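Inputs:
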Amino acid sequence: MSTFEPKIVAFLCNWCSYAGADLAGVSRRPYPPSLRIVRVPCSSRVTPAMILSALKAGADGVLVSGCHPGDCHYLTGNLFARRRFFMLRKLLEFVGLEPERIAFAWISASEGDFFAEVVKEFTDKLRQIGPNLKFRKVLRREPFEFPYL
Amino acid sequence: MNSLTFKLREKARQILKEGQAEAILAFTEGPTPFKPRLALIKSPEEAERIVWPGFSGLNPLTLWPKIKDIKTAIFATGCISRTLAVLIKEKQLEREEIYVVGVPCPGLLDPQKIPDKPEIKKIDEKEEKIFFETQKETKVFLRRELLRETCLSCRHPSPTLYDEILEGESLTPSKIPFSRVEELEKLSSEERAYWFFEKIVSPCIRCYACRNACPLCYCPQCFVDDSRPQWVGKTRDPIDNLLYHLVRAFHLAGRCVNCGSCEAACPLGLPLQVLNQKLIKEAFENFTYEAGLDLESPLLFDTYDEKDPDDFIVTAKRKTGG
Ligand code: SF4
Ligand code: SF4
Ligand code: SF4
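Outputs:
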């Protein structure tokens, strides 16, 4: 799969991680061009339906990133988000659906280098896992075949 | 007559006479013994229609938006009282709006567990025994053979919230509340994915009966009805089915009271409640949280703790081992 280039949808919070991505850009840190960034007001704005929709639309991975605990612009948004993402992960694991395709990170506005590093590592990991075939919705003429076993 | 039916009728007459409530939301005899119907009983004479809903898995509080403008009494088993507690905490109902008669729950029964049910003419319950009258004979089953999976996994069969409580004995709280979940957890991730597709995603016809039968799925516009953005497509594409089931289960995380109304409503008898039970289990193990046990503590996602698990979140500190 040497030619496979993963696509990642990244939900970045406006106040920390989006600014972190910005810093990575202005400091000219190279990272793979795999990201499609969606700016959200807070990591707690991200719902499971948004994450799963991104995968359904064909993304190979989803990155959700927000401020560190204690740094949230809305004080505690990321702490509420943390519980939800924890439960979502447990649910995805339970139904055997590649929770590795969804990554969560806390990245502050000053961590431009780290942002580039996270994107690079996540992209490498997705290269190994391969393209998203289980979640992606394609128009089918044939009855659906179970793609796992 | 079933002794619980007798008790419910007697209590209903008393409440309507003494005026603790203007109406009673209860099950009445339906077209078949398996399908009792919910009705709003308003006079002591009508109370004769009330029955104990042995085989109806529907949670009567599913109709809560319709009883808001009239002081109503309900008969609440454990899960129904917990549903009420969650609805009150979510500010959908006021405690004073509902008069709650607690019923120690003997457990509800699953029609799918009876062999040859179409011939059955009449059903009677006497404590541990269930009698089925067919044309020729009367068959006897033990209650525990027919209990719903939900009731077998019930940790709180006695009501937690009530104005008064009927006498009687309830089921013993389950010692294996998560057996269905644990069985699946033992499998490999591939096998679980296979189970999910074979048992839920692929057969589901997305009739939304499971959503409609859930007392806590009361959104005026459900996410499946949105058209901009359209979260789920209109066909039965498995990916849309998958998305529906995961998101629905997630919306009930920390709220689902394990009443089993969703599973009982499914026309295909799919084991969809297992997803909710998984989330109940995780909430209990990681946040010592159970839905609807009291009126004070915040809902699972209405609060947070500094020490909530976060080892799945990537941070610079964690990476450098600092
Ligand atoms: S009730 Fe059953 S068939 Fe209908 S949407 Fe729910 S799981 Fe699917
Ligand atoms: S999702 Fe939970 S609360 Fe809703 S009907 Fe099912 S078991 Fe009851
Ligand atoms: S599935 Fe979600 S959006 Fe739909 S009614 Fe239930 S809680 Fe509301």
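Remarks. The pocket of iron/sulfur cluster (ligand 2) is lined by residues B 59, 213-214, 216, 252, 256-262, 273, 276 (CB under 6 Å). The CA atoms of residues 268 and 284 of chain B lie 29 Å apart.
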